Amino acid sequence: MWAEQRGIHVDQSELLCKDGCGYYGNPAWQGYCSKCWRVRTRSTQPDRQEYGERERENSVLMSHSCCCPLSPSSCPSPAGGAPLTFSKFEEKKNTEKGRRVNTMRRLFWGSSPSPPKKEPSESQIAALKAFQSLQPGDFTNFLKLLRRPASQNLQSRCTAFLNTMEAYHDLPVEKQSDLVQDFYQSIAGHFGSLPEEQTVQMMEHIEKLIMTRLHKWVFCHDSSDDEQKDLVLQRRIRALKWVTPKMLRVPFKEEGSEASDPFLTAITAIIEMDARRTPQDKLTCVSKCSQSVFQALASSSSEPANADDFLSGMIHVVLKANPPRLHSNMQYIIRFGLPHSLMAGESGYYFTNLCCAVAFIEKLDGPALNLSPEEFEEYMQGRRPPPHSGVEGCEGLCRARTNQQLLAEVTRRQEKLAEGVCAMQAELSQWVQAVQSQVDDIQAKVPLHITSTETDI
Q: Which of 76-85, 217-226, 230-239 has the least mean pLDDT?
């Protein structure tokens, strides 16, 4: 049975973007990478130039309406000819409806084509050199450098963006995602003179600064159905608790009773993801989980783990951990994470496999586990007892067996003690009766006479 080809199989090419750009795709983006997906979705939206032209028209209308608030017919037109008609004020009213989104876009793109780049000043060059001296992950010193006068421009842009996002936190989460990604792209130009590796580190600090503040506004947003999907996925994983590593063909090495669960570290790491606030910190948990899966597979088999073994191990970890708010955490990373973290590198590969594991769990059926549809339904409905796990050396199972034996021994001793107590009570009752009988016999043979010893005074 186990020699047959299983349903869990992944080819490296299947993880890449459908556009063939070489980056990792994602099921949430219909198989495209984040860059290609945003290009495709934005191709249906008006160009940024159109937004700039519309903003210029709006500013002209607003300036004239402010000058002539009482008599629309007496106000000259923007061209200086015919007066403004009622339709112009209707147009102004309609443009006001989209003003919030346009204001956000103007924050990043401007209302006119961007001017040519200016050469950085001496203070900006000094600030960049200070940023360049930072060690990877040194977020505390990054904040200290950000408060310096030389970094005032960068700090002002970040503060203005955060204030604007918090003011418009009721926007749909997808629009908020676009605005955050546009801000990343815009702010990356500030570090354009740094080497690519250091630019990536600076952008990770920027992401941590921004998303730590925005987490409470954008995570599991009211405009999305993330909370409902979290509950559906959690119930699905709970219903699949009977799936064993052997069914998933996760390679295990039989060990003695002292061996611990090789996937325990991976399970702990994926559960910790929900406690992190920034996408990069959540991705770090995913990377730690994935690396632990590879280590567990390496310790359980003499052969190096391949992509199929890794995906099977990741599926097993997700089923065992049932991480809290898994769907919301994945969507949070997809919407607000840095593109380079998801499109390439170790973190991109690990996160793509996590998404594939969740997609596999959502669509899991009998043939994928070499089970008939009837057997699969019996397991899902609890009519068939769960199969025995193939992890004989699991610490939890050994501990359960040991506790069961100790409990049986304690029960046996308790029963023996209860029998001894009953026997002692019976012996004590017999001894009391025997003593009382002897006392009665003595009193019968030698009557006790009590004489008065009183004397006359």
A: 76-85
Six token digits for residue 258: 């002292």
Amino acid, res. 100: R
Please provide residue 230's backbone torsions phi and psi, each rounded to the nearest 5 degrees: -60, -45
Model's pTM, two decimal places? Answer: 0.65
Query: What's the CA gap between 201 and 197, in Å, rounded?
Result: 7
Q: 305 vs 202, 291, 294, CA distance in Å?
A: 34, 12, 7
Phi/psi for 165 (5° steps) reads: -65, -40
- How far lies 270's CA from each of 61, 191, 275, 306, 319, in Å? 54, 33, 10, 21, 11
Name the nearest CA neighbour of 314 among 270, 283, 276, 348: 270
Residue type at 428 in one-letter notation: L
- Asked if 83 contacts 74 with a C-beta cutoff of 8 angstroms, the reply is yes
Which of the listed ranges 135-139, 366-370, 381-385 does the model predict with the highest average pLDDT? 366-370
Partners of 24 in the beta sheet? 16
Residue 381: which H helix or E strand, with range?
helix 373-381
What is the chain's alpha carbon radius of gyration, rounded to the nearest angstrom? 37
Q: Please spell the DSSP secondary structure of 63-88, one letter per residue.
A: HHHHH-SS-GGGSBPTTSSSBP-HHH
Q: Decide: 180 and 210 in contact? Cβ < 8 Å.
A: yes
* Cα distance between residue 429 and residue 345, in whole Å: 83
Sign of the torsion angle spanned by Cα atoms 318, 324, 328, 334: negative
